[in-house]
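Subject: design request, 414 residues
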């Protein structure tokens, strides 16, 4: 299933919440719930590809880094102006995941030399980059430097980064975060220590390179967030991974998630296929659902009645299933409900299953529950759905996660 089809699944519950529920709520609660609905809408309805503007010289490892994000040889489509060499947005994807893509603007380091086929670094090419930045606003600036070159002359590249970021600020009234990436750390001394996880001496040199770049950037650029060291090297043969020397990539991808807007999360989860990222997104959805239900539970009947709260929970479970890479269908949701210990026969109607879900989630509660109870129950279901769909745990383990979270009266972290 692609995102377009998934959209139809999520449209209805979000529309219902916005149109039917919100108007009935009193001011402060309404505001909070509306904020959470907006977040969910960004993730599921307003989704788009992440956009990275990359500053880094030829050979700094841009292509390798992109492949390491996909863990596959990434193909390039989109604006290919012949041999211009710089200044256009390119869409990257892999053949097995055509509906997961990211957009890259390779601004190239001004400090690098030029080859005959690629453009020289004339004022024209800078204009071209700016034109592309005007067309589309990047979510993040990535500044790539080879580990062995953090001491080298990168002043010109930093000046270029500053100029481009200022340009984006004026054009889009948005200041994208700058994330520094120290690439090719395996090339640092000691040379014999090439295979991750690296030994102590290597780690010390990696730390040194990262903090050096971080200090250099902090002197020049406002609000630089962080510098991350990576080894991104992988080799492929006929689309298959035949060699993998990646180090610190998962942490880097997770770090990037936290600096990307919610509207790019679904794509980011699909591109990276990293469980840690799926888990992180699922928790964020669970937190929103839990806050929404907490707000609803605090209302008097009939707004807070059980089907509404259960409806939010089922949408949450469905979303988590989708983020995990499952196709959206009733069967997988029914299986999950079954894992919680509700006897779901093959002929069992979905509505009935939903009603049983509310019985097991709120035993003996009758028609109303308190805000806190609704929040805890929703968060417990979120954790159980993560255990089931993302961590692929057994039914009994999933049931234990649900019951334990509920018993501990756990609420989502602030
Ligand atoms: N040892 C090592 N080599 C790398 C790494 N990343 C890239 N390379 C090599 O460095 C060269 C330039 O990398 P590439 O990704 O093409 O750089 P680009 O010009 O910025 O796109 C290639 O020969 C890569 O195989 C790395 O992490 N470790
Ligand atoms: Mg390249």
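Subject: RE: design request

Done. Sequence follows.
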């Amino acid at each position: 299933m692609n995102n377009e089809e998934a959209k139809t699944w999520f449209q209805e519950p979000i529309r219902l919440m916005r149109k039917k529920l919100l108007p009935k709520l009193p001011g402060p609660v309404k505001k909070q719930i509306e904020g959470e609905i907006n977040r969910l809408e960004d993730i599921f309805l307003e989704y788009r590809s992440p956009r990275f503007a990359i500053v880094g010289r030829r050979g700094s490892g841009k292509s390798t880094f992109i492949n390491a994000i996909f863990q596959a040889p990434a193909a390039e489509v989109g604006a290919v102006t012949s041999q211009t060499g710089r200044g256009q947005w390119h869409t990257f994807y892999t053949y097995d995941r055509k509906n997961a893509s990211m957009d890259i603007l390779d601004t190239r380091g001004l400090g690098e030399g030029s080859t005959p086929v690629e453009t020289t670094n004339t004022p024209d090419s800078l204009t071209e980059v700016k034109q592309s930045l005007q067309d589309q606003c990047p979510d993040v600036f990535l500044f790539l430097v080879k580990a062995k070159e953090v001491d080298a002359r990168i002043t010109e590249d930093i000046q270029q980064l500053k100029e481009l970021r200022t340009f984006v600020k004026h054009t889009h009234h948005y200041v994208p975060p700058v994330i520094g990436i120290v690439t090719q750390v395996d090339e640092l001394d000691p040379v014999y220590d090439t295979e991750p996880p690296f030994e102590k001496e290597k780690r010390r040199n990696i730390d040194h390179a990262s903090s050096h770049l971080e200090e250099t950037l902090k002197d020049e650029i406002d609000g630089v967030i962080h510098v991350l060291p990576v080894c991104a090297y992988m080799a492929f043969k006929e689309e298959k991974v035949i060699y993998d020397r990646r180090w610190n990539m998962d942490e880097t991808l997770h770090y990037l998630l936290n600096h990307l807007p919610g509207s790019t999360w679904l794509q980011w989860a699909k591109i990276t296929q990293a469980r840690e990222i799926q888990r992180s997104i699922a928790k964020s959805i669970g937190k929103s659902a839990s806050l929404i239900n907490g707000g609803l539970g605090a209302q008097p009947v009939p707004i807070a009645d059980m089907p509404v709260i259960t409806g939010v929970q089922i949408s949450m479970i469905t979303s988590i299933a989708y983020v995990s890479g499952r196709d959206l269908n009733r069967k997988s949701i029914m299986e999950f409900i079954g894992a919680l210990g509700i006897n779901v026969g093959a002929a069992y109607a979905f509505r009935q299953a939903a009603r049983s879900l509310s019985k097991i989630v709120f035993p003996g509660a009758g028609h109303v529950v308190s805000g806190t109870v609704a929040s805890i129950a929703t968060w417990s279901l979120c954790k159980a759905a993560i255990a089931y769909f993302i961590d692929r745990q057994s039914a009994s383990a999933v049931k234990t996660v649900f019951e334990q979270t509920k018993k501990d009266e756990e609420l989502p972290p602030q």
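Strands lie at 51-55, 75-78, 89-94, 97-106, 140-146, 178-183, 226-229, 234-237, 240-244.
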